[in-house]
Amino acid sequence: MHSAAWRISLWATLAFACGTMVVFVFLQSFVVSDIQRRSDAWLSGEVEVLGDVAQRTPKDALYGRVVGEVAELAAREVPNKPTSGESSSDTVFFLQSGSDGSLKLWVGMGSGQAYLQAIHATNILPDRPTDLRVPGFAIPFRVASIRIGDGSHIFLGLSERDELRVLRYLQLRFFLLWLLIVMLGFGIVFLTSRRTLSHVRRITVAASRIGQSDLTARVPTTRRNDEVSQLALTLNGMLDRIESSVHQLHTITDSLAHDLRSPLTAIRGKLEMLLSSTADEEHIEPIVSAIEELDRLTDFLNKSLDVAEAKADALRLTRTAIDLDESLRIMLDLYEPSMTDKGIKVSWHGSGRVAIFADAALLHRMFANLLDNELKHLPPACTLTIALRSEEDAALLILEDDGPGFESEVLQHLFERRVKGRDSNGHGLGLAFIDAVARAHGGTVAVSNRESGGARIVVTLPLASSQDQDPQPTAAAAAGSH
Amino acid sequence: MRLLLVEDEIDIQSFLRRSLDEAGYQVDVAADGKTAELLAVDIPFDILIVDLGLPDQDGISLILRLRQMGVKAPVLILSARRSVDDRVRGLEQGGDDYLTKPFALAELLARLRNLLKRNTPAAAETTRLRVLDLELDLLRREAMRGGQTLQLTQQEFVLLEYLCRNAGRVVTRSMILDKVWGMRIQPDTNVVDVHIYRLRGKVDAAGQQPLIRTMRGVGYVLKDR
User: Fold this and answer.
1) Contact call for B217 and A272, based on CB within 8 A
2) What span, in angstroms and rounded, lies between the C-alpha atoms of B111 and B60?
């Protein structure tokens, strides 16, 4: 259920990380160019000063010492110098080459020859600091040069080691900061989306419960005016309309039932009175058959209205906890003598208690319908196999017979009202009713002809879940209760 | 037994009044809630039959009002509606009963008897039932006729017990289905009849006076005289 929150957080974090990375890379390059610019400015300034000093200092024996001192002094003000007073002698060099390219003066570590050769190999423009790679040094030097009056060149070099160290340090800082920001962003996005989605989940749970039980409940709303609460409000508006149309349907079926049942009651009562006052066998027969017709009509009325309501998903259920196994065994006990009398063998395969949460009266009528169908249509000497199994979250009731099966043209329209076989004398509501009851309980009915001949009906009903805790579990199929 | 029938449909009113008269009830009829209230104030009825669809008010409101007025008699609620609403369930739990239209007279009478029985102090639970020369031992689950033990299955015994408890009165097929199998169904095959035939084959053996009688169009009765 957290998958959506995870997905949203991951994608948002990825986008966020990329965005902040671009910002940091930009910052980094800005800082790099700034540091470069500052050290270049220092180099250019210093080399100018040194050039000035070299030009003015007389070319005597002290020349080397004076210029060397000045160069040493300059090296102490190297930019980006580490705070630990490390010797800076290896980070700066001063080199003067004569107009013939020979080494005239060298201040720095080791001999200046390697540097001079590197300078000759590289084209160093005056007034523009340039990178210089000296053999034996991993880190290049930044070198600025100036030409003085006597045609010699002064080179001032600064190792980029300290600069690189500062940049690496900065890079590490940036990376850690980036990581922190990204993780913080992920956390915030994850928590926010999870909170929002948990509200969506509450709506989903509430909405699914509404579909199963009653239409009067509504999904939870919040006071905030965001998309989720808009969704909840829209859902509730939709539920209002569904409830009102279902209510409309109930009103219609109720008044239809009322308007037909009242005259039926009166007719039945009068027929019964007539029956009790008649002793003449000749007159009894038509009265009895009229009463029976009337009862069939009543049953038809009830089933039609049930099917009509079920087709609109508006069948009213009074659910209790029911053991399907027990209900079916009682039902089979009721039908067994009739089956035996007709020469039909019944074989029952139960598998212990199968608890479902259903409308007992409707379920019993559905079983009676299934067995009535078999009893009416199976020829003698057939076998009816009834199996009840519980699978993962559904109860499976399987009826198989070795009779003639369904006519193929009937098989395609079985669940429609008024479809029945040629030799059927029912009102053609049987399977439509069975389907209606199963659907109302969130189940299904599948009808087919077996390959080996005969019909096969599979009714699937959802098992009772832990949510269906009945406060007073009523033994719905309590046989022999007085 | 004084009975108040609250029903507005003239046709139903008239046949109910006649059959209840015949069954030995002294019947007063009210066609609406107002009249029913006025009658109930004056006359201490033993039992009431109230239709839910009254012209001036809802049957349940009437029952609740009567209860407030101190009427304690049990009520049999008649309804032509499809759904049983929660208030009816509440009344059912309070000891009243509910019957859907259309109904068999035998069932109406049986329910009235049950309601009245509930209101009288219960007699000590009997362990033996006796109807003519038929005798049932409820503890040992044994049935004897004329001294001969009958070989009955468990279900057949329960069925015979139900018939014996209602000896002399008609029981319908739906009453048998409800009380013996605990199911309110309306099979369109003769499953109950087959059970009765089998039971009759054992109870009414050849040469004996037949006890279980078929009342055509109505149901069955176990003769008690």
Assistant:
1) yes
2) 19
pLDDT tens digits, residue range A211-235? 655 677 788 887 777 888 888 888 8
Note the pTM of the prediction, 2 decimals: 0.69
Specify whether the CB–CB gap between B160 and A458 falls below 8 A. no
d(CA A208, CA A216): 13
**Can you identify the CATH homologous superfamily of domain B2-119?**
Response regulator (3.40.50.2300)
Instruction: Name the residue type at position A130.
Output: T
Paired residues of A157 in beta bridges: A93, A143
Establish if A272 touches chain B: CB-CB under 8 angstroms.
yes
What is the nearest CA distance from A445 to chain B, expressed in angstroms?
20
Per-residue pLDDT tens over the stretch B122-172: 666 788 899 988 999 999 999 999 888 999 999 999 999 999 999 998 899
Q: So what's the ipTM on this one?
A: 0.88
How far, CA to CA in Å, does B205 sit from each of B137, B194, B200? Answer: 20, 16, 8
pLDDT confidence bin for A479, thresholds 50/70/90: very low
For A3-80+88-167, which CATH class?
A: alpha beta
CB distance B179–A275 less than 8 Å? no
Scanning A309-328 for CB atoms below 8 A from B yields 316, 318
Orientation angle between helical segments B154-165 and B173-180, nearest 10 degrees: 120
Domain B128-222 has CATH 2.60.40.10: no
Reading phi first (left if > 0) and then psi (alpha if -120 to 50, else beta), residue A428 is in left
DSSP B58: B
